[in-house]
Structures are given as C-alpha cells and as structure tokens.
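Workshop exercise sheet. Pairs work together: one partner reads the sequence aloud, the other fills in the structure field after running the prediction. Swap roles for the next sheet.
Pair: D.N. / O.F.
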Amino acid sequence: MTRSRAIAIHLAVAAASVGLAGPADAQPPDPSEATADYQIGSAAWNGLSTLEALARGMGLDVVEERSLDWDDLERGDILFLLYPTNRIDPQNLTTFLHNGGRVLVADDFGKSEEALAALGILRGTGIGVRADQFYDGHSYAPVAHPLIADHPLAAGVGALTANHPSVWNATRGASSVFGFSGGDSSASAVEAGDGRLVALADPSVLINRMLEFDGNLAFSINLLRYLSRAGESERLVILTGDLSLLGQPSRVLGDDERGGMVGLLGDFNRWLLGLNDYLLTDGGMRILAVAIALVCAGFALVWLPRARQAALDGSWTRARGGAAELPTAEQVLAEVDRPGRRSFALPAAILRDSINARLSLLVGHPDPVLRAIPSRVQAVSPWQAPFYPQRDFERLSAAADRLYRSLQEQR
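Structure field:
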C-alpha cells in the first residue's frame, strides 16, 4: 500500500467518525482515486489548490518546477521543497540560506535528512509520537502545539494537526516552534542573516484536506508571510518528489553585502562544509592510518638517536642545592630589602645554624633545638621554602642575643 493510499484511508475513516468535530463539511476521499501528491491546481484531497489560492491571494505567482538551477531563484522568490525523493546537497542548501534565501523543507520520510542535519535539525522516525492530543484518538494523527507562542509562525495557531508525521529529535541552532509533549519538534525555523528556513516534519499539513483544519490553515498563512519579503516577494516556486536542483547558489539574495571579511568568512565556512562530502571508506581509513604510522616511525628513527647524544645532566629539573649554591650575605640582604611581603626564612635559617653551633658545644649534640626552622638549603629552594615573617624573626633574634650574652657571661 502506498503512503498516499494509506493517508487517504485514514482520512476517510477520520472524517466519517468525527462528524462536526472535524473539518467543516469534510467529505471522505475515495482511496481508489489515483492522484499524484502535492499537485498545483489539483482540488483532490492530496492536492495543493488551497495553498495555491492562499499564495495568489497574497500577490504571489505560484510556479511548479521539476528541475531548477539554484541561481535561477531571485530575491523575491520563496522556495518550497515538498517530500523530496532525491538527495538535496547539504552545502548548497546551507549556502542558499546564508545568501539570504527563503525556503521551506517539508519532509517526513524523503531524502532531506542529510541537508537538514547540516543545519542542526535531526530527524526521528515519527513512530509512536508521544503527544498530549491525537485527532479523534487516532495514533497516526498527533496534534502539535506551539512551543514559542510569540513566534510569527505560531500567531493565531492553537494546534497543528499532522498525519503520519516524522519528527525532529534535535534542533541545534534552530527554533522549535511547534512540538509534542515528548519533546519532539514538528516545525522548526532557522534564521541566518536575512535568510530564513522552515523545516516541517509533515508535508501533508499543506494538502487540501489537512488545510480544512483551522490551525493548519492559519499556519500556512503565517508560513507564507514569514518567508516573504514585504513588498518584494513575487513567486512561490514549488518542487516536489523527484526534484532536481542544479548548479550551486552563488547569488546574494539577502540584505547583507558579500565582501571583505564577511565574504572571506563565508567562503571559508562553505569550504568547511564541503569537507563533509569527502568521507573515507573503511579501507581508505586503514590505508591512511598505516601511512601516518610509517611517517611517525620514520621520524622516530631519524630523531631519537640524535636526541640520545645529549648529556643527561638533570639540568632540566631546575634542581638547586649544595653549599656552592648558597647565597652570599649581600644576596640575603637584597632579598630581605626588596619591596612587598618579605620572608625572613633564610636569615632565620642562618641564625638557627649559629645558635645550634653554640649550643652543640655545650650539650655535645649536633642539632639540639630549633628543628622547626628550615635549613638554609630549604630556605633557598624555589619549591619548598616556607614563609617566615619579620615579627617572628625579630623575636628569634632577641632570644639569640640574650642567649649569646648569657653564654658570654658564664665563660
């Protein structure tokens, strides 16, 4: 069973069972009618005659194309891509947006996934959508509600009714305007300078039968207004199904002029996006890994033997120590006299050694007291030198003076 036939049957069941609760005077479609989806001028349930009438009422010429060159689009054009079954180049879509283009990508299960992912919009399966409300209780018709009430797309729209939709699981850099209670989004908007893009997870929202819902109709009007340039938009260009977009968008359509640093950054950004097209296969990645390993091995063979010729003297540790490296009296005074918060750890260590030398003569022990004061080597160490305040040093100095006088008197 085709998707169009499945939607037709479900809409027929819904219209027959709802009565006055559904779209006004809705007549169930005949599933046997073989009409193509999204046809301009088609008044069938899955046609776009209502959308076309809305656009023409807003002063837009509605044009349907199967193939189009990106640079054929003018500043006043609005581009609709409905359920594309051919791949849309991600770099071209992103460039068109940054050039100031206005575009709708309405797709549930087509091939726009890669292009939208480049803009941070990731598509989910849409199976088992968690929603607070379903149209007439049908699981295939979840009702989305505004997530950003003051967004232009949500003006006057209480609910957006879908039919077999997909969802956006993540919208990094995009605004999720409509969504479901489970956190999934059904309609998101991206703005880049003067460019605007709307990603709609269910293109059937725009067909004739679905526009009989007041919310869907109001959303469609908002959509055309949001993507239009006031007083400038002239055409609505619609491509559906196996559409073909040729060439690359090189024309600036927005208000921002391309030039100078802005143009340079834009070109660099497009170059980075283009790198995504060059993906290595598993075999190619293995070959690249082996080549990188061989280069590193060759570098090691050439460089490492030369490095071993250098003497291992330990100078890289910056270690200091030994009697030969102890500072002179002039260096000690210069260190104490420098401005700022001064440490008297080294003078205290020198005085400690002097006191211990005197006491050791009396008690016959090489280090009888003052173990808390650091040694001279510790005092000049750049890593472990303790701070010794001037007040404590002055107390220690006074105590040493009294000790020396007492020892002198006992001689």
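Discussion prompt: The radius of gyration is 40 Å. What would you look at next?
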